Amino acid sequence: MIQTQLYIDGQWQSPIDNGTRDILSPADASVIAQAAEATRADARLAIAAARRAFDGPWRQTTIRERAKLLNKIAELIDRDAEKLAHLESLNTGKTLTESRTDMGDIAATFRYFAGLVASEAGAVNEAPHHVISRTLREPVGVCGLITPWNYPLLQAAWKIAPALGAGNTVVIKPSNLTPLTTHHFTQLVAELDLPPGVFNLVTGGAEVGAELAESLDVDLVSFTGGAFAGESIMKAATGNFKRIGLELGGKNPNIVFADADLDAAVDYALNAAFFHAGQVCSAGSRLMVEDSIYDAFIGRLAERLPRIVIGNGFHGETRMGPVQSAQQHEKILGMVQAGIAEGARLVHGGKRPPGDVFKQGYWLEPTLLADVTAQMKIAKEEIFGPVITAERFRSEAEALRAANDTPYGLAAAVWTRDLDKANRMSRALRFGTVWVNDYHPYFPEAPWGGYKASGIGRELARIGLDEYTELKHSYINLAPKAMGWFGA
Ligand code: NAD
C-alpha cells in the first residue's frame, strides 16, 4: 500500500495530528493508498518554512541556477515518466495513454520555462546620464499553489515551473482525492540540493487551501478548480491583497457549421467531449450544430457512441475510463436527469454501463442529450463528465449569441471551411482559447486561461512566468545635487 507524507522545510513528516485519508481507485473503489491529511496547523508550518527560505538564501540564486534546476526536474520527470503515468492513471482513472501524454507535456513545461527564465533580463530605461533607471522583475515571494483532481501533476507543473523559475518559494496543495503524482514529484524535488523550505508539499482538503488563501505570509495564491472554491479564495486573498491567479471551470461550445468537413467534425466532437471522460475544464461538451445538418450529425454520433470502448485505463484498447469519484458520478447522473426533465432527448447513455466489471467504481456510459435549448440548465452549467448536450442553430448570429451567453469563457471551437467566417467567429467569441477545425491542442508557448467567470490571469506562455513576478522601477542617482526647490 502506498503511504504518503508531507514535505515541509526539507523534511518528510506526518501531519501534526497524524491524520490520514484513504485514496480510492475510481475503477473499483478499492483503497490504493493512504495519504497524509494535513490541517491548517501543518499548512502554517509549511508557509513559515517557505517564508524563511524566501527571505534567506533562495533570494541569492541566479536565473542560470534556476533554469538549470527546471531542466533537472524535466530530466527526472523523463526518468520516472512511466512510474508517474501509472500513478496518475491509478489515481484518476484516465487511460495510460493519456497519462503518458501528460508526463511528456509536464517535462516540456519545465523545459519551456527553463528557457524563458534563462532569457530574462531587466530593461534599462531612458534617463539622464547621471541616473541608472532599470525595470526589474523580482519574485513575488511565498506562493500557495492549489490544484484539482482532473490533471493533478499537469496543473501542478503549470504553476511550479514558473513559480520556482521566477525565484519564489512554494507550498503546494494537491486535491486530497489525487495526491499521488504530486507526492512522487516531491520525492524527485527532494533528490535535488534545494535549500530547506523552497518547496513544500501539504496534502489535505479545503481547510489547507483556505489557510494558503488567508495567510498574511503568503504573497500569491494560484488556484485551479471550481467556481465555488475560487470565489472563497478570491475573498480570502483580500486579507493582504495577495496576487491571485484563478483557473476555473468552463462551458465550452463546439460549433459546427453546415459547410464543415463532417467526418472530421463528428470524430472530434467525440474527442472534445469524452477525452478523460469529459473531466477537462475545456471539454467541448456543449455541441452546437447548424440546423440543416443537425439530424444527420446526431445520427452519426449515435452510431459511434456504443462503439466507444469503456474500461480500465491500463488496458490497451480502452478509450474512456471511469469518472473520478462517487460524488462526481452522482452529480453527472443528476444533471442528465435534470436535462431530461427540462425536455432534452436522451439519445445514448445516461447510466452505468452493464456488466459485472462496472458494478464497483464510478463508471458512466458516454452520453448524448439532443434537442437541448440554450435556456436549459445543462446548456449553462458545467457537467464535468462524459456528456454531450446538442443544440441546434439557424444562423451565424444565433450561434454566436448563444455561445457567448454563458458566464464562462474558457474555450470554444468552430468548424467551417469558410475562412472568413472562421475569422469572424474567432474574433467575436469571448473565450480564452478558440480553435478552428480542431479541438484541445495547447502549447507551453501559448497562454491558457479564461474570460469572465472562467478565471483571472493566464498560465503558460511568457505571461505565465510574469504572473509570478513583481515589477520594480529601480532609480539610482549617481551624482545628486541640491535642488533648491524650497529655497536655500
Ligand atoms: P475544487 O474547486 O473542488 O477543488 C480544487 C482544489 O481546491 C482542491 O485542491 C481542493 O481541495 C481545494 N479547495 C476546495 N475548496 C477550497 C476552499 N474553500 N479554499 C481553498 N481551497 C479549496 O475543484 P475540483 O473538483 O478539484 O476540480 C474540478 C474543477 O476544476 C472544474 O470546475 C474544472 O473546470 C476546473 N478546472 C479548471 C482548469 C482550468 O485550466 N481553467 C483546469 C482543470 C480544472
General description of the model:
This protein is of the alpha/beta class. The chain has two domains: 264 residues, Aldehyde Dehydrogenase, Chain A, domain 1 (3-Layer(aba) Sandwich); 184 residues, Aldehyde Dehydrogenase, Chain A, domain 2 (3-Layer(aba) Sandwich). It has 15 helices and 21 strands. The strands form five sheets. Strands 15-16-17-14-13-18-19 form a seven-stranded mixed beta sheet, sandwiched between helices. It has a six-stranded mixed beta sheet with strand order 10-9-8-11-12-20, sandwiched between helices. Strands 1-5-4 form a three-stranded mixed beta sheet, with no helix packed on it. Helix 14 links the parallel strand 18 and strand 19. Helix 7 runs parallel beside helix 8. The model has no long low-confidence stretch (mean pLDDT 97). Nicotinamide-adenine-dinucleotide (NAD) binds next to helix 7 and helix 8. InterPro entries: Ald_DH/histidinol_DH, Ald_DH_C, Ald_DH_CS_CYS, Ald_DH_CS_GLU, Ald_DH_N, Aldehyde_DH_dom. One of its GO terms (molecular function) is betaine-aldehyde dehydrogenase (NAD+) activity. Pathway: Amine and polyamine biosynthesis; betaine biosynthesis via choline pathway; betaine from betaine aldehyde: step 1/1. This is Betaine aldehyde dehydrogenase. Keywords: Coiled coil, NAD, Oxidoreductase, Plasmid.
